[in-house]
Amino acid sequence: MISRNYAAFACGLTLDAVPDTIRSRACHLMLDAIGTGLAALGETWGERAFAAAQELGQGRAATLGHGRALGPREAALVNGVLMHGLDYDDTHSRGVIHATVTSLPAALAAADHKAASGADMLTAYIAAMEISTRVGSVAAGGFHRHGFHPTGLVGAFGATVGAGLLLGLDETQLVMAQGIVLSMAAGSLEFLEDGAWTKRIHPGWAASSAFTAATLAKHGFVGPRAAYEGRFGLYALYLRDAAPALLAEATRGLGEVWEIAEVSVKPLPACHMTHAAGDAAAAICAEHGLSGDQIAKVTVLVPEGVVPIVCEPSAPKKAPATAYDAQFSIPYVVATGLLKGRFTLDELDGAALADAQVLALAQKVDYAIDPATDYPTHFTGEVIVETIDGRHIARREAINRGAPDRPITNDEIRAKFDDNAARHLPRAQADAIADAVLTIADRPAADLADLLAAVVPAPILEGVPA
């Protein structure tokens, strides 16, 4: 059974068995997620989530930017919300999953709860990543087609194994824990229809559920053994297929081929499916410097699988009402890139979203299916601009920046972290956090937890209970 293979892999994993390059990359992926969480401090949705978590369960667990006020499950929930909420976190393309923002909050909560070593926390994080990415890869994008968000759905499984390792579960208990979390894994794409906040909570819910499932299994609670391939297991339920063709992907190269090396780091704070088109638009801006009045029409070639997420329904995509709408909008990202030559967090504030020139150009942006895409291996994109004076200008990005074969380097990840952290922290405090993450294998996990908890909390918004 797949769950037994995962349990055996996790229980047998040692940090010494992980190549140095993978260990280093894992630390940098954690740093990237923490940086996106720091950039999110003070956001309304984050403060609302923290206020709710305080009511659900108080304790001494470390919560990013909010001290030690929550229980471990609640801390995992809020940390996941913060790390994912800006949609600036990493993506495993083949699994179509934001793997770190489920794996890290669960591992941090469990390691902090058990006073574990940083080496054990890093090992658990790596195990979680290797499992969740493989679980997602089996679906080959199928979860999205059925309306499920894989990060919340799939991420719960790897996070459960990671948390279970730190809580001291044996192989049999880890099998039970995966079966238990099958009844907790969730994530609906309905947020795409009206810009709701629910996507932001998916990784936190997965991490919180992981801690819950692992704890139940630790105390002898019995779960199904065939969590994945069973008659009513993950794939039968969510893919409507009891025997998906790619089932071998679930354990392919486990312990020998490291999926962490295949994780893409985001260069833009938007859905990964918009990045190639956004970069193509920015390149056209740099070369041609067109104004909106010079452009008659824009066509963006996209993979068919991304259309329901970043292209349709057309009206709200062309006039996004919220930052989240904008992050999932090919028209907005491309129009911004064509006019400004960039897409940063600043392009998601209120003034940017109301920019009349960008919104007018977004109305001229349409899409067509890319016949040459290799999605989901890459999130391809091509922007074709037709000008008023009859010119055709095209730019194609066949490999999205940040993909494994066009990677963001570790130095670039550190620079991205510095930029994100600088929004709320003095440089010395940011440097201390970065050092703790990058040397986590040589120190107690509590060193990092304490630093994250000690970040000065963002002001509590008026009307939000303290």
UniProtKB/TrEMBL annotation:
Signal peptide positions (record): none
MmgE/PrpD C-terminal domain span: 269-438
Protein name per Swiss-Prot or TrEMBL: MmgE/PrpD family protein
UniProt domain MmgE/PrpD N-terminal: residue ranges: 6-243
Family: Belongs to the PrpD family.
SUPFAM superfamilies noted in UniProt: 2-methylcitrate dehydratase PrpD (SSF103378)
